[in-house]
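Format notes (please read before filing issues)

Several people have asked whether sequences and structure tokens are stored in separate files. They are not. Every record keeps both together, in the order shown below: the sequence lines, then the token lines. Line labels are part of the format and must not be stripped during preprocessing.
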Amino acid sequence: MNYNREDSLNFLLTKVIKLRRKKLHTLLSEIDMHPGQHAILYLLWEEDGQTQKALCTKVMIKPSSTTVVLQRMEKNGLVTREMDLEDKRISRVYLTDKGKAIKPMVDQTLKTMEEKCYKDFNEKDLEAFKSFLKRIEKNLEDE
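Then the structure lines:
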């Protein structure tokens, strides 16, 4: 089998990710959010008061990038950062009332994004696609 760049998994995934990121950026900007903020918000909606380091690890971005995202979120009134009471070297991130209240808008934005991505998929196709992606993920994690 010859290698065809445009049919390669790497090329197709990269292209889809870039297109998705561009569309998501547009949708998030409509609710005055920047890329990356929604991922941190979802983690905090699940468990408020996580450490900055834990958030950085879970969203898989560099500590410096996490700091920039959190600074922007603080400026927009979505989160506050406070020193841990037991260890002053640790910074904990908490949702503000505004950060809690924005959840329905973020949910709707991401639902719109999902619907756009999967509009021509039936349930069987979607389940197969997710299964394939999970298998690829497992293959890459096993190495």
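For reference, the curators noted about this record: The longest strand covers residues 79-83. Residues 34-103 form a domain with the Arc Repressor Mutant, subunit A fold (CATH 1.10.10.10).
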